[in-house]
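Customer ticket, subject: "Can you confirm the structure for Enterochelin esterase-like enzyme?"

Message body: Hello, I'm evaluating your service for our small team and ran a test protein. I'd like someone to confirm that this is what the system normally returns, since I don't have a reference to compare against.
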Amino acid sequence: MNTKRSNFRILSLILTLALILTSLALPAMAANQNMGLKEGATVKVDKNSPTGYTATFVYKDSLADYVVFSGDFRFYKPEEKDLKKWYSPYDWEPGMLPAKTARYEENMKKVEGTDLWTISMPIPSGSFCYQYKVAYAFNGNDKDVDIVIPDPANIAPLSNLERYPKEHSIVYGMFDKQKQVTDNSIVLPRKDAKVGKVNYVPITDINGDKKYLGVYLPYGYDKNQKDPYKVIYLSHGTGGDETEWFSLANAGNIMDNLIAEGKVEPAIVVAVDNNDYPPTASILHTSDTPWNYQEGDISDELWDYSMINRNFFNNVLPYVEENYNVSKESQDRAFAGLSRGGYLTSILYAEHPTEFGYIGILSGVWDGLVEPTALDQYENLDAPKVMIGYGEYDNVVSLDNIHTVYENLKALGVEVVDNPVFGSHDWFAWSQLFEDVALDFVGK
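Agent reply: Thanks for trying us out. I re-ran your input and got the following:
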């Protein structure tokens, strides 16, 4: 391992953990009485902003040499059909939409006579990730960034502190119907009491190790309700975990809003942690249980898809059905996964189609299903409804493969929907796709 890079990661982890622990002990938005500024992110109505709102970010650091704001604030004109041409938040115009091809970055300004660093910019409706890149002169180099951290006054949710802390924070923009065209308020937290609850619960996986599930219970969840709830199971992609569908895609907020608006029936959402399942034992494997690799598993260098699916049926599904009031009927069960989780979902669907009423293959499909005769070996593919969704400007996975699998399924008479949305290989696209999955599966 590169020693310099290893030391950098250790320094970053220590400082980030320190910031998180500090933030847990202090109010989420610490006020600076002298300047009238609040640490964290503040969104206010601004008649001079092109969006009608301005977001102000304030970071306190007495030792910083300089601070760079880095966030998902690149905007695009859909009619230009070109994600290489982007616009800053200051150039935002009605009809522009965000997509994460790279982060927008700008140096923050230090407020004279204080330890505060700040930046303000227009913000449209929606959910936006951001972070701070901080350089310290005492490190002997005043040119390079030393750490990348979340906003310590606005920490994103963590499942537990056993995992690496998140390097991002979230800020929400609101909709101004006079100045904005696209209303993304569906991802915003509700301000009333009609809010469900997300818990991160530990389970023992197929290898005997502790993993976590992210479980969303809808507002008014009744464990004794006569009619059990339907369930949507979700998988992240490469490098993700069980928190991302809730902290980045805002799945909980989307469900809260759809349920409150009467558009979907209350349902449970379960996000699975499919990390650390390579074909050979993960370095995080600490139990005495033998690694569950089996000859003939479908796998690549990162994920043993067959092992992950065995874990789902043998460990995840039984835990959920034993501990929550959920239907055990296959038609009341959905599964959706993004990116590498889309590969996983397509394999799960091909091998176990009768176990689900709905399948969402999002932004990725297993190569083994692309050949014209690849689907011939599988039966009952018409059992669930299938949605194949993706960002129409995705430049990470093969859209040709996605289109081919869609056409092959359609030719077999499967009830399959081709669902492109504006976006790239990003959470802006996956938020839209989750909303579509929810409306399609539990819509009224």
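A couple of notes from the result: The first strand starts at residue 31 and ends at 32. Residues 1-9, 22-34 have pLDDT under 50 and may be disordered. Feel free to reply with more questions.
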